[in-house]
Amino acid sequence: MPSIRELAEKLWNGEIDTQEYHPVSFRQTVGEEIADGVLYYKGIDSAELRRASLLFSPQTLVQGMQAWLFDKRLDQFGEGLNIGSFGSVYALAWLVFTGGSVLLLLLRYKKVAR
Predict the structure, then answer these.
(1) 31 and 60 assigned to the same domain
(2) Residue 65 pLDDT > 60
(3) pTM value?
(4) Residues 15, 13: Cα–Cα separation, whole Å
(5) How confident is the model at residue 16 (pLDDT cuts 50, 70, 90)?
(6) Does residue 24 sit in the same domain as residue 55?
(7) What does the CA dihedral 49, 47, 4, 33 come to, rounded to 10 degrees?
(8) What angle do CA 24, 74, 64 make, to 5 degrees?
(9) Is residue 88 located within the same domain as residue 69?
(10) At CB < 8 A and 24+ separation, what contacts does 16-22 make?
């Protein structure tokens, strides 16, 4: 396994591509000093964490809902990633986000109408 500096250099020069070493799923098990006083450590990576992380952006939340409803894979976030059992969590997050947005809009326009 190459060091993070070697990997970055090879990716930059086009010697390897992200299909071989994807930045999200690349496992760095120990810390590595990449510059004087700068330590790099890649933490835990799992499909469950990637599924949950998509909840925090409206754009990826919509992509997750589409993947769950239409049984699609989300290969752009990791090979073979699907929503699986997180579907109900995505539905709840989408309802909360949409309901909250509509409520805020109604409150705003009620205030403007006065």
Answers:
(1) no
(2) yes
(3) 0.55
(4) 6
(5) confident
(6) no
(7) 30
(8) 105
(9) yes
(10) 22/78, 22/79
Paired with 38 in beta bridges are: 35
d(CA 53, CA 75): 15
pLDDT of 96 over the 80 cut: yes
- Given a cut of 80, whether residue 42 has pLDDT beyond it is no
Q: Structure tokens of 7?
A: 């990997």
Residue 16, H or E segment: none
CB 11 within 8 A of CB 22: no
Strand partners, 39: 33
For range 35-55, the mean pLDDT: 76
**Count of domains in the chain?**
2
